[in-house]
Amino acid sequence: MVWEGYKQVKRNGGSAGIDKESIGQFDAEMSKNLYKIWNRMTSGSYFPPPVRTVFIPKKQGGKRPLGIPTVGDRIAQTVVKQRLEPEVDAKFHSSSFGYRPQKKAHDAVAQCERHCRQMAWVIDVDIKGFFDNINHDLLLEKLKQHTQEKWVVMYITRWLKAGVEQEDGSIRQRDKGTPQGGVISPLLANICLHEAFDSWMQAENPNNPFERYADDIVVHCRTQQEAEALLAAIKARMQQYKLELHPEKTKIVYCKDYRRNQKHDNRSFTFLGFSFEPRTLKSRVEEGRFLAFRAGISNQAKKTLRAAIKEVVQPKRYLHRIEWFAENLNAKIRGWYNYYGAFMREETLDVFTYINGLLVKWIKNVYKRRKKKAYRKLREIQASQPDLFHHWTLGIRS
Fold first, then answer.
1. Close Cβ partners of 110 (under 8 Å, ≥ 6 residues apart)
2. 202 closest CA partner among 253, 229, 232, 237
3. Cα 24 from Cα 44, distance rounded (Å)
4. Rg value, the chain, Cα
5. Euclidean distance between CA atoms 213 and 243, whole angstroms
């Protein structure tokens, strides 16, 4: 089990933990290190070291703490996760999509689109600081209902209470929450919300379908009154688990389309990087256009993609050849397109025209061309190397 855990951690890669030991350094004495983990876990004497904390920028501003366990601790967590996950995953709700084998974000988005066509109202649920506020006692109580293996419960208890590095370098013990970035954390989050939300919805509100991806939740309703009543019930249910809905980010949304003529202030929401909103589409059956409530790449995702593109294609990078830009962008473009291009493909392709605009500015600087001649130069490059950039192969012309 330790060996299988090691192979999984090795495949996933990742940064060093608080001990500053990289995977490469761990490998230098692999047999010794793996034996130590095995020996301590089998004897019950394994205690996790504190979690290193890095702060990453949030899309809405501010910073989010990301916990990075040591390489050895990631292996130990993987041992427990691989033991526990098959047992609990079989009990999870079919509308829980996050961090589960054989489940994808695209499945959740597609199901959400279908339900938005069927029902006119949505509750966009945001749990305030979910990972930081999971109640340990309630979680462990529910965990014991899923497994009889005491060693699994024992080690999860220790991980929940392990110290966390603070911004000033000090170590603080946790009395609630589980660090985002831990191997075991997503599974614990699913266990918590399976009990707090999924099972409750199935028992108490079986006629209101939902999609949940970790703590990102969308619930569907038939009327505004139903949505308001259900939102109040969800809020009370979360309070039973010591959780709170974010007052600004949680909202009721009207899924406006050509069949629905009510008015409401909120007519869009974002789920897994896709904006669900009314969109004017061309009819396939007859001439003309119609209004549909569909998912497409969100404005925030577009902004994030453009920022990442600009980091690479800087117009004043005189020392780089255009092939360098392609080498450093193509894998990203391919990944972005595979994810965001699954819904409203044209909107994702529009983002990639930004690359061509930056390349024109680069050509203007490097080749000392005016704008018109810079465009002509880019077209010449594209004609001679049509596969140079991945977005060119998708039909984006300069």
1. none
2. 237
3. 27
4. 25
5. 17
